[in-house]
Write the structure tokens for this entry.
Amino acid sequence: MHKKQELQACLQASKRPLVLYGGSGWTKTAARQLETFAAANHVPLVAAFRFHDICDNHHPCFVGDAGVGMLGYIKTLLRDADTIIAINIRFGEMTTDGYDLFDLPKMSAQLVHSHASDAELGKIYIADLPLQASPNAMAEALSDITLDEDENRRTWCADAKASYDASFTISPQPGALDMGAVLAHIRGVLPKDAIITNGAGNFATWPSKFIKYNKDMRLLAPQSGAMGYGLPAALAAKAYDPDRFVLCFAGDGDFQMNCAELGTAMQAGLYPIVLIVNNASYGTIRMHQERNYPHRVSGTDLQNPDFVGLAKSYGFYGERVETTDQFAGAFERALQSKTGAILDLVVATEAITPRQSIADLRKAAD
């Protein structure tokens, strides 16, 4: 049987199919072809870790990402799928929630796994249909497939999309500056072709889970957990496309890994906007301390420099934001700056993740 016929046969009987996609090498045409397949057949689209920007997050079939801080509905979706079409992804700890989502070496769902390198096929999970193919070839093949109409698939996809949309509504954050409200404001004013960058840390959940990336936006972020990536990535983006709006998210500890690159920015005239989510802590390490050894804090509290003064010394506009109502004005002033901007967003250490406080972690651990 021809591979394309095998692919259609695998999908035809599925009631709960799902596409998990990622990796490099995608063209915009391929992304649109994948969206066409998903829309025609009511198949949820789940981005792998850090690949939010391949498909349009406003698409009716885009339902979220499988990565750090994986939300409960995504875990349920992946567990309940009866067919997983994995396109150009390397199965690893992030996309499998620490290898807990699927049985090894053969998951209970039917697995169609395509990758440009055959070394990735069967490396972690045995595929029912392994396909050595570029993401563009796979997307083109899928775009020609129309499955029989099935109300189960329609409901399955619609419910997943509803869960994704609902995930943007969260409880107010501890402290005077609420990052949930900050991200809601940012979503309303971001240019349609914005480039978002971030480093590594709990703060990265905000651009990961609370921005909807459209087909013209880009996300530059590390899969490796490399702190300090966001600022140099933002400068590289500005150097590549000076007219694009570039917004960097950084943590206070994360920012200080590479803040000397402000010298590069000044020297080369590269001026992004940088948001420092300043909780005076190495937040991810603190989170793990509280989960495993509650109340035993070691080496994670930070004594930070004057970030506003630092910004100004390098020619950037700088402003400290301490309350939610201060943010909109500060962000507008940052947008108007001709020499970039650094906003020091002072958030409570207690707001350790968007959905859990330190008190919540301690209560769960006790």
Summary: The CA atoms of residues 49 and 67 lie 4 Å apart. The longest strand covers residues 110-115. The chain is about 35% helix and 15% strand. The mean pLDDT is 96.
